[in-house]
Amino acid sequence: MKYLLYFLSFTLLALEPTVPREQKVQYQEIIALMGKDSDKALEKLNKMDEKRSPIFDYLQGSLYLDKKDQSKAFSQFNKAIKKLPEFTRAHKALAFIYLEQAKHKLALKHLSLVISQGSGDASIWKNLAYVHMSLENWQAAWFAFENVRLFDPENAQLQKYFLDIRMRQENYTEALLIAKEIIEDTPQDRNTWLTYISCFNQLNKSEEALANFILFEKLFKLSDTEKLNLAGLYYSQENYLSATKYFGQVEGELQADAKLRQAYALMNIQKFAEAAKILAALKVTEFKNKETYLQTFAQVQMNLGKTDEAIKLYREALKYNANNSMTLMSIAQLADQIADYEVAIDFYTRSMKHKDLMNNALLRRARIYLIQKQWSLAEDDARAVIDSNADKNSKAFARNILDSLPQ
């Protein structure tokens, strides 16, 4: 009878229907049966006249609800409210059904009516808060939880609800203060620690975030996600050795991404051979963004002086994005370095589709044309730069090319 007992609790301010004198005997009989034989109680209720007091409709609905027949319960509670629109317990019951069905806007209507009657207890306010949370009415949810606290001032869980609301409102300054209070009281609260660190990140206080993550590691064993995040904080502080350490510890489905970021960290401290070893052990099929992996590996090979391998990797990257400006220009420059001018001209030309690269590609192509003694082509490219909105240095370089042409 858990539902029945739940709904029999009400405050002194709740509006209750009266039981007419001629129906009091039936009322007493049904109340007695409800605790002993709910089926017989329902049988008696079904035989009653429809003009009965709304309390009987409510009791019948409570019995159906206890039998998990929400449809019949819903019908009876509505009958009770039709007879007595301010029937508090019936509104509570309908709110409960709507909450069970995740129909939060409808639940809100009935909970609000109960509150307006001055009949809100801790349970009502808590349900109201949950409804507002589900509807993303964050400030209304905060107000509802404040009222829960009036009934239950020692409820430590409320602080977590307040923290969640401020995080969802992106009010990270206040969230930080709430999170700090929680972890001071319960230092072993892992999730709140992570929220606390997240607040520092959101407030662009990466040094404080890192310092607290170091404390976090002393309290808890890090998950792979946490290792990845800690490594990222070390990376943001340009502590590439520590970043490399933690990126290297990540396993599972996050490992491929972590290994790629480990390679970035090694590149920043000029450890290209180590980065190449890590990248060579990976497979392109492990990455969602295959192009990024291939570009990174190509940059490492380029820094190791392995130009042919770098070009090969960049060409492979083009299979996943044929118009990537960085890849096109990189191939052109590498081919230019090894005097493979036909390939260089081809890729400089393809790079010109990107306006931000056009003048640079024109100047580089013009220089190759000079080497090949294709004077008219070199002149055309140089004049195109001079006639453009290129910067002073680019135009000066273009004039030097024109001055280098035979008279």
Q: How would you sum up this structure, described in words?
A:
The chain starts with a helix and ends with a helix. The protein is elongated. Helix 20 runs antiparallel to helix 21 and helix 22 runs antiparallel to helix 23. The N terminus is likely disordered. It contains 24 helices and no strands. The chain is mainly α. It has a domain of 119 residues: Serine Threonine Protein Phosphatase 5, Tetratricopeptide repeat (Alpha Horseshoe), CATH 1.25.40. Keywords: TPR repeat. One of its GO terms (biological process) is transcription by RNA polymerase III. InterPro entries: Tfc4/TFIIIC-102/Sfc4 (IPR039340), TPR-like_helical_dom_sf (IPR011990), TPR_rpt (IPR019734).
What distinguishing features does this structure have?
407 residues; mainly alpha; Serine Threonine Protein Phosphatase 5, Tetratricopeptide repeat; 24 helices; disordered N terminus
TL;DR of this structure?
The chain is an all-alpha fold and 407 residues long.
